[in-house]
Amino acid sequence: MSKISPQDARLTFRALEPVHGMIYFTPHGPEVYRELGITDPRMMYFASRSAAFGPVPAEVTIGAFFNFNPAAVRAVLPAAWEIAAPGDILRARLKAVDRSLRQAWGDDVVGAEVREAADLARRAAERACERLHGRPLFGAHAALPWPDEPHLVLWHAQSLLREFRGDGHVALLLTEGLSGIEALITHSATGEIAPEVLRMSRSWSEQEWAAGVQGLRERGWLTRDEIALSGHGAARRQAIENRTDDLAIYPYEAIGAAGCERLQSLAAPLAIRVIEGDLGFPPALSERYRKAIRAGAR
Question: How many other CB atoms are there within 10 angstroms of residue 234's CB atom?
Answer without folding.
Answer: 15
